[in-house]
Design a protein that fits this description.
84% of the residues lie in helices and 0% in strands. About 7% of the residues have low confidence. By secondary structure, the chain is mainly α. Helix 1 packs antiparallel against helix 2, helix 5 packs parallel to helix 7 and helix 6 runs antiparallel to helix 7. It folds into two domains: 155 residues; 113 residues, no CATH class.
Length: 291
């Protein structure tokens, strides 16, 4: 029984580690509908509360496991296994809370195509359905092997969930930089029109044209970095992996792709900042020329 308790403990500790890393991203997810914001915040609150209870049950399991390891009697072994069941049930419920939060965000977040949105929602709904069907099976486990298998299956689904969240986070970062670049394009067009009016009036616009060219060049560099990030984010996903080893590999790849994409976004933002510095000089010169 000692080996079985340790085996179950290993599976459960893996799930603990995964929950510790759960995050949609630090990116602020753009929402426009007030009810959608309220819905997301409600699910976020429920998830946070579930995590707190989950951590408490984790400690209960660890305490029961330690007690069994010290005594190694059947009574304490049975108690430890019951705590393991309670722990897995709460893990399942917490994953459901997280997926509901992720789903609420995916339903209304701006910056993704409807096709991308539907793909993400289909994946989330599939995992939600599995978790809902799986939860009542955990208390009915009659052997330690069955309980360990439940834990492994949950690990598989949780890794998939994390990959879904990373892809959504990447899409959101693209939306944010796109909005900034689009505003820059709009400003550039407005400045170009003003310069033309000044030229028509016979005024010297050479400084303005130089600054505008620099502004547009930096925006174009930002677009190139943005496009490179899109390539990385579009590669994040699962390719039908079914084993823990395969999914862990896909998760590592997703981490690398998200990191690479984020670095491209940082570069893009840097070019945008440089571009916007030219606007100060442009605004000052336009004022001087009476535009």
């Amino acid at each position: 029984m000692n080996k079985n308790i340790l085996k179950i403990s290993g599976v459960l500790m893996s799930i603990v580690f995964l929950f510790a890393l759960a995050s949609i991203s630090q990116a602020k997810l753009a929402e426009t509908d007030k009810k959608a914001v309220e819905k997301y915040n409600r699910y976020k609150s429920e998830y946070t509360q579930a995590v707190n209870v989950y951590k408490s049950m984790r400690q209960d399991f660890l305490t029961a496991k330690d007690k069994y390891l010290k005594s190694k009697n059947a009574e304490n072994g049975a108690a430890a296994l019951q705590k393991a069941k309670d722990f897995l049930v709460k893990a399942d419920e917490t994953m459901i809370k997280y997926l509901n939060m992720l789903k609420a965000k995916a339903e209304t977040v701006a910056g993704i195509t409807e096709s991308e949105r539907q793909q993400i929602l289909n994946e989330i709904n599939s995992d939600l359905a599995w978790l809902e069907q799986h939860k009542p099976q955990i208390p009915n486990a009659t052997t330690k092997e069955q309980l360990t298998d439940h834990g492994k299956q949950m690990q598989l689904h949780w890794i998939k969930v994390r990959i879904h969240a990373k892809r959504l986070a990447g899409k959101i970062l693209i939306y944010r930089i796109n909005a900034t670049i689009a505003e820059g394009d709009k400003i550039g067009s407005d400045i170009e029109a003003r310069i033309q009016k000044l030229k028509d009036q016979g005024k010297d616009t050479s400084k303005l044209e130089t600054w505008l060219a620099d502004f547009e060049n930096n925006l174009n560099l930002a677009k190139q970095k943005r496009d490179a990030a899109i390539v990385k984010y579009d590669q994040i996903g699962t390719a039908g992996a079914t084993t823990l080893s395969q999914l862990n590999t896909e998760l590592e790849e997703a981490d690398a792709l998200l990191r690479d994409g984020h670095n491209f976004i940082k570069d893009a933002n840097q070019y945008v900042r440089v571009a916007y510095k030219d606007l100060k000089d442009i605004a000052k010169e336009l004022k001087t020329l009476g535009a």
